[in-house]
Amino acid sequence: MRLLPLLFFLTADYSNAKTTLSIANNQLSFENVSASLRSDMKRPRAKVKAKPKKKVRRKPHIVKVVEPRKTVQEEVRDAFSDSLIIDSLSASLIADTLTNDTLPWPESLRARLDTIIKKSPTLKTSQYALMVYDLTADSLLYAVNEKQTLRPASTMKLLTAITALDKLGGSYQFKTFLKSTGSVVDSTRTLKGNVYVVGGMDPRFNRDDLIAFVESLKKMGVDTIEGKLCADRSFKEKDLFGEGWCWDDDNPVLSPLVYSRKDQMMEKLKEEMEMQGITLKGEIVDEVAPFAAVNICSRAHSIDQILSRMMKESDNLYAESMYYHLASALNKPARAAGAKHFEQMLMRRMGLDPSNYRLADGSGLSLYNYVTAELEVAFLRYAYENSTIYNNLISSLPLAAYDGTLAKRLNGTRAAGNIRAKTGTLTCVSSLAGYAKASNGHVLAFCIINQGVLRAKNAKDFQDSVCVAMCK
Q1: pLDDT tens-digit map of 329-345
Q2: pTM of the predicted model, to two decimals?
């Protein structure tokens, strides 16, 4: 708008110059006419026939209307409208956002969340629950449908992880044992007895562990095993699938002797023995190791190693392994009911009634799981108040825009690097629960569950908007 005075100035100069030129032309024209008249007075006049007058069409007189000068706000609005195409919804959101940002925290957060919920088309055709709790101030910030029971999908892993850390501790290990009976005949390098693999449902057990088992036999001086290779599966119940799992889903196999995500450890061990020159004369059978069996070798992985992949990659096998190790603290063989028992005990300590919820598995694959946003936030609060649990848990959660299942979400927003949360996805279900760091430094616990959504992206967009609002 600084150009307007310059335009007026140039216009005025041009008008003055035009007027001066017009006067000069008129003077010149007048002098020429006078000279012509003087010349004509000396000549004899000739009769001139009068020519008929031509009708001259006059152009209509146009009156220019000078509009009043616009205000700065009007000029900015016009320029914004010219440079961007904004629909009514976006314009409304921008206006609401500007209004919300003028409010003090946490009123500004509540206003932003109100706006997101009001404007979200996804929520008009589906169920949802949202709860945000200020852990630093120990106060509830926001809650909508927080007591409504919904399917949590993989945010169920939060309950499994927190309960396991509470019961088993941060130094707990997932172990697999190699044992034997009988004795070794030195002259023939033959083990006259059985070899037992006692499964501990360790999802990280790999080829390095198999090689360690075979090398331990070699160190004993064994080239031949005349007995059997026995699979001890007594760690857990025999069911290989969880309650309420869909038959056509990509379900993990719940075996105590899992190897490369399959129930094939014994076959792979036999192959490795043959490669290392150990001959097995007996068969592979299922048999529990006797109490007198001697421990030859053991392999272990820490709870942190299991927890990391379970949460960051949302690995269902790892979650179910954690679930059954939790259950094994109650009884063996471990049963899913044992894990539920400890989860329900923890709920009672939080002041919640376990009968208000339905627990079926540790991964969230089951369609029988029904929890609330209030319950998940309660577990997150409990973890935050117990440093041993929190320190193990927080490092395992995906970090927004950086790793895990949140690596490609919230990039370039204020939530990037400020949200650590567990994602959840099932058919028509999407969820997100964890911790957020607000702009004032407060730590927030939150849970968002969307159910009945036909397009997961729509639910994720809603969840991302909430995350940005919390971190703004």
Answers
A1: 999 999 999 999 999 99
A2: 0.79
